[in-house]
Amino acid sequence: MNQYWPFSGLTRPGTLRERLIVSLDFGGPREALKLVDELGRVVRTFKVGRLLYRNGGPDFVREIRRRGAEVFLDLKFHDTPATMCKLAVEASRLGVRMFDLHPGSHDTMERVRGEVNRVCRAEGLRRPLILAVAMLAGLNHRETAADAEGRAVRLARAAADAGLDGVLTLTAETAAVRSACGRRFLIVTSGCGAQPGWNRWSDGAGPAEAMRVGADYLVVGALIRRAVEPVRAVRELLEEMERGIRLGSRSAIELFSSRPF
Questions:
Q1: Taking the CB of the first residue and of the last residue of the chain, which one, N or C, has fewer CB atoms within 10 A?
Q2: How do residues 137-164 score in pLDDT, each as one tens digit?
Q3: What architecture is the 16-256 domain classified under in CATH?
Q4: For 157-178, what is each residue's pLDDT tens digit?
Q5: Contact predicate 119/89, CB 8 Å
Q6: Is 76 a catalytic residue?
Q7: Is 141 helix (H, G, I), strand (E, B) or coil?
């Protein structure tokens, strides 16, 4: 059954199984592949970050793909425009579902998108989704929540203007990014907080709230890996995501008039 983002009227990324992304950023490739095998029946996409990629390399990504799973390559490309284009092309050739980069100049982001499009057309490759990172580390300690939200919105708008597919951002910034960038812009949300006990989510920061305010994909890591029964944990998490989608659907009519098109 397809799920629908209430602000668009368009089919969004698909079933809930495809909208949950499990982070593999722990241990080494062997432990990560074990989790892929364990969760393959209930999860479609797995996130590979810098440390894990450094340990496993391209062959590790190919192995995940051989197991029938999708990959979010979270390497946050940040280099010269020419090098970023090369990195983006290699990610595309690996067959990843999505990858991310630090938002640079408009010309740089547009150039990366254009080069990926060109190579995918020429080589008959599936074009991956290209995300800009709107959640940045090392922020000034004096920055307020409003400052962080405003920064995320500025970065998201810049990415949208350059033709990128979406952003990686925090749960707290999702609603503002959705409002600013419209209904067709993809939002991959990370950073859902939790109280002790993996399924007791803190108010306003859990998976149901993330989906309600506009997330297309949800990234979760340690809370699933540390669960006594990871498959059961995933299923309960999917139920929370579905609840958030239903809540969003109920309020969609009231919000349509103020949402950008």
A1: N
A2: 545 556 677 888 899 999 999 999 999 9
A3: Alpha-Beta Barrel (3.20)
A4: 999 999 999 999 999 899 999 9
A5: yes
A6: yes
A7: coil
